[in-house]
Amino acid sequence: MRKEAQQALGIALSTMVLGACVTGPGTSASAQKPRQISASERAQAAQAHPEILAEFGGAYEGPGTAMVKRIGKEVAVRSNIASAENECTVTLLNTTVVNAFAIPGCYVYMTRGLLSIMNSEAELASVLGHEVGHVDAQHSKKRQNAALGSGLVSILATVLTGSSQIGQLAGQLGQVWTMKYSRDQEYQSDDLGIRYMTAAGYDPYAAADILQSLGDQEALETRIRGQNEAAQIPSWARSHPLTAARVKRASQKAAATGVKPGQLKRDAPDYYAAVNGMLYGDDPAQGFVEGHKFAHPVLKIAFEVPQGYYLSNGAAAVTATGGQAQIQFSGAKLSDGDSLDSYISNVFQGVLGNNKARYTGVQRTTINGMDAATATARVATQNGNRDVTVVAYRFDGGNGYHFIFVSPSNVNVSNVVNTTSRSFRKLTDAQAAALRKRVIQVVTVKPGDTAQSISQRMAFDSYKLERFLVMNNREANPTLRAGEKVKIVVYG
């Protein structure tokens, strides 16, 4: 959660939704005459762009950024989009989410999380080519047009109305930008991506490699977090379903190009040089999630949720799912003249909107030395009654913070509310300073080095070897060659 989130009392996102097919799965986009990006597509994309940046932590401008933009342009100009070099905007997003997506108008997005598990420029060209393929084939146009103009909607309001989208959102902002495509659309974009990357001089067999890495990453997330929680994690595999058949198909399509393995460039050394020093994991400006704990070194705050809940750190809020309650944490300005009563009233207004439900009287208390207050409302929804509980705090420096808990009215979540709300606390200067960022470090394998020995340098308390294998696309018990490059994650 960024400091700017203190300015907003609700958690809002655009409801532009992507994904209907307008060309048949067998249609070759490049066989048609060059397609112009329309003025309306450009205008809509330009309007959506700032919202996407806000929802995904902003644009990342550190190591790796120039490479992503360059290769994005290289594959785009091989597409059927007229003047793609000037029409397409490629952005590296500052988020740990493993994803890539594009919107009409040829705005293409790659996340730090996805870039970190690649191992060559060819793999990057494959993914960016795939996303350009969605734009080229106009897969997103119909659903996007139908959703334009819908305005902003509170995520918690979505919960309260019983919308099925909450299962996809899972508390993570920005997932409406990455809705699933059909299998045929995915296959068509795979084919187009392979065509573009090959035309740009990149080894097409890298397409299958990155698909395999994405599957391995998904499996590791499932293992680390548990099956139920991992199923809610927004990722590339949520919006681009992975199967063994799809990986095999990508290899077959690469062979169909007539290119032999290793014949075209992979440029792994250039990739390693580009990502060396790239931020890995949470940005300190947005705070750190470690299991069920959250801590922010800049705001000097911390809290934790009960075991079994999965925390997701968004740009405007921190959310927790996996239990019987939906939990969201955010903040807003609270000057000396403002009361916690009015603060809570504003929060409920942001959540309930015009809903006629009324919350009960505000109860005041003190939590960890801070003035605090709580109130609850019962709301009728399509899926039954829901209780909405708000716990607000008066923090130092004119800042307020609050939790929102949403749960079925017939379920007692008082222990979750009490445990979570009473864990919120101020960090000392020393505690805040101890929270350190992580970065990718490219190292050269020395004689005698093994995956096990190198992985022990990873800046994690658990799953060190497993993380090392996934981010370097290695099978179990790999043989490392002296002189080759591998990635590890260290404290910056």
From TrEMBL:
Keywords per UniProt: Hydrolase, Metal-binding, Metalloprotease, Protease, Zinc
Matches recorded under InterPro entries: LysM, Mito/Outer_Membr_Metalloprot, Peptidase_M48
Listed GO MF terms: peptidase activity
A GO BP entry: proteolysis
Keyword Zinc: yes
Cofactor: Zn(2+)
Keyword flag Zinc: yes
Chain segments annotated as coiled-coil in the UniProt record: none
Domain spans labelled LysM: 441-488
Family annotation (Gene3D superfamilies): Metalloproteases ('zincins'), catalytic domain
Protein's UniProt name: Zn-dependent protease
Species this protein is from: Sphingosinicella microcystinivorans
Highest classification ranks of the organism: Bacteria, Pseudomonadati, Pseudomonadota, Alphaproteobacteria, Sphingomonadales
